[in-house]
Amino acid sequence: xxxxxxxxxVEVVRQGGFSRAAKVVFATQPTVxxxxxQLEEELGTPLLERIGHRHTLTSAGEAVYRHxxxxxxxxxxxxxxxxxxxxxxxxxxxxxxPTIGSNTLFAPLFAIYLHRYPAIDIRLAxxxxxxxxxxxxxxxxxxxATLLPVSHEFESQxxxxxxxxxxxxxxxxxxxxxxxxLDDLRTEPFVQLESSFALNRIILQACHRRGFEPAVAAxxxxxxxxxxxxxxxxxxxxxxxxIMDERRQAGLAHVLLDEPxxxxxxxxxxxxxxxxxxxxxxxxxxxxxxxSKEQAPEPGTKPQQPSGAPRPPSRRRRx
Length: 319
Prior knowledge:
Layout: H1 3-15, H2 18-24, H3 29-43, E1 48-51, E2 54-57, H4 59-85, E3 91-98, H5 102-105, H6 107-116, E4 120-127, H7 129-137, E5 143-147, E6 154-169, E7 179-180, E8 189-193, H8 198-209, E9 215-220, H9 223-231, E10 237-240, H10 241-245, E11 252-257, E12 263-271, H11 278-295
Parallel strand pairs: 3-4, 3-5, 7-11, 8-9
Antiparallel strand pairs: 1-2, 5-12, 6-10, 6-11, 6-12
Helix pairs in contact: 1-2, 1-3, 1-4, 2-3
């Protein structure tokens, strides 16, 4: 059983078709079709069933897909470990970042990382936190930035914890307040990010704890459009203070959300027990250093390393 045939099959499933899969594996569509056909012939059973313009998995296909993803992940982990033998003179950092907040928090860290390790190739995936967790779970990236809390299947390293602000029109009845509670907003329509953002889940759970279901007037995955919807009077949005402090604009008010159990708690996460390449560990070291400085511990105290965090590599470069 050849890994390239398994990879072609897995990408056909992930991408939803042969044409898209061909682009991902850098092959022609006939080549991908041939690879899947060879795999079916070798296993003696069809793996995909064509229904209209879609391909769905057969029962055998579901089993093969499940095992193939694990085999390909194990292959990638082996290659990463072999790269580590060469130190950080070469390698790849496979990283997932959210589309909101990354320019503020991570752009300076990229500058530090590339200065220390200029030969490392960075492969970046940018999505909402929910989708990033799925990509990480599938083994397509090593690290992802998402909001806490997360499933026990992941380990984490803190990045930044920020209070939320309620974003509302400047002429709103609550706009002049220093802070508001969720209960103050229970009758207001909400303008939310798309469902792929973990912040939606966190806000919804907080509303449920307070006994109400918020009315959602609109959703958007674009920060500029979301703030424009709020300015137009469609409803209230919730975003981290750090981001909104840099985006103040006429016609909008930022009111602190006074809820101790409701914060934008960003962390880097990775699969529990997974092997992390030295490139990934080097990134975590930089994130840890930045977080320690942000926390500004008292003199003589040592920042606490999160449970399960891998030991960082030495900063010394090999000759």
